[in-house]
Amino acid sequence: MTFAATRPGAAPVPPGGAPNGTPGGRPSRALTAVYAAGAVTALGTQMTMLALPWLVLETTGSATQAGLVFAAQVLPMALLGFVGGEVIQRLGARRTMVVSDLARAPVVALVPLLQTLGALSPAALVMIVAALGALAVPYHAAQRVLAMELLSPHARSLARANSALEGVQHGSAFAGPALAGVLIPLMGTTSVIWLDAATFAFSGLLLLRFVPAGSGGAKGSAAGPRGLWAGVRHLCGDWFLSRAMLSTVVFGLMLRTLMITMPVLAFVRFEGDARVGGLLIAVLGAGGLVGSVAAYVLAARVAPVRLACTALVCVALPLWTLLVPVPAGVLVVAVGLSSAAAPLANAPLMGLLTARLPDGFGPKVLQAVVTISTLAGPLGFLAAGAVLDRAGVEATLWGVAALATFGSGNLILALRRLQATGNLD
Question: What is the pTM of this model?
Answer without folding.
Answer: 0.66
